[in-house]
Amino acid sequence: MSEFRKSFHLDALGPLDVTGEARHGQLLLAHGAGAGQDAMFMQRLRAALAERGVQTLAFEFAYMQRMREEGRRRPPPRVERLVDEYAAWRDGVRHLASGPLWLGGKSMGGRVASLLAARDGADGLALCGYPFHPPRKPESLRLDHWPSLACPTLVVQGTRDPFGTREEVAQYALPAGVELHWLEDGEHDWKPRRASGRDQAALIAEGATAIAEAMARDASGDR
After folding, report:
1. How many domains does the structure of the chain reveal?
2. Domain, as residue range, for 84
3. What CATH number is associated with residue 161?
4. Residues 9-41 pLDDT 10s
5. Which segments constitute the KANL3/Tex30 alpha/beta hydrolase-like domain (predicted)?
């Protein structure tokens, strides 16, 4: 099946990559802290979502765009600034929305999306590898804003993710509207160990299916 894809420059915000047709809705998708939308994980995730009827609107934060221009790494700015940037992208793609517009992202991008949803509301959230805490710092939880989430929220997480394993997350008191989909043996990029008998592509396909099904249920009112 050929995949619909279009890239263009959105006003003063920067490049926007649109992939897939919105049979089950649209997902405004942010990247993680250290890699942009050209990361293999992000490319494979967008392709898998397109195959399942989810149109992704993929953007990069300004610091990542500067990294490309300068050819050197730089840390992301404070999360509050990223939330404002994400809000600007959300507002900027409104004219492309043909129905529910879910927010989401990988790791840091998902955290920023959740902070924006807690602040302004959202049609839904798809969080891929949510950073519940920094690695090896399980006491530093990033959940203070979660009681304010009032939209359908899906977390797709590897069971071995150092930012929040299945055993750790089981101890958290999460809001009733949060659904967890665990990818067996996956780590932060959803890579399983060879001994599991599966590979990253299979886990990305499973994660994309979970996202598409959650968005389809929400669109039909069946949740």
Report:
1. 1
2. 5-220
3. 3.40.50.1820
4. 888 899 999 999 999 999 999 999 988 899 999
5. 26-215
In the numeric block, the tokens 């359908």 are attached to: 152
Going by the DSSP 8-state scheme, the letter that residue 70 receives in this structure is H
- Distance in angstroms (rounded) separating the CA atoms of residues 118 and 92: 19
Find where tokens 């990818």 sit: 183
Segment 116-162, tens digit of pLDDT: 999 999 999 999 999 999 999 999 999 999 999 999 999 999 999 99
CB atoms within 10 A of CB 2: 5
Regarding pTM above 0.85, the answer is yes
| Residue 84 contacts residue 76 (beta carbons within 8 Å) | no
75 vs 73: CA distance, rounded Å:
7
Query: Rounded to an integer, what distance in angstroms lies between the CA atom of residue 26 and that of residue 32?
Result: 19
How many Cα atoms are found within 13 Å in the side-chain-facing hemisphere of 128?
31
| Residue 34 · residue 189 · CB < 8 Å | no
> Cα 70 to the chain's mean position, in Å?
26
Would you give the DSSP letter of residue 61? -
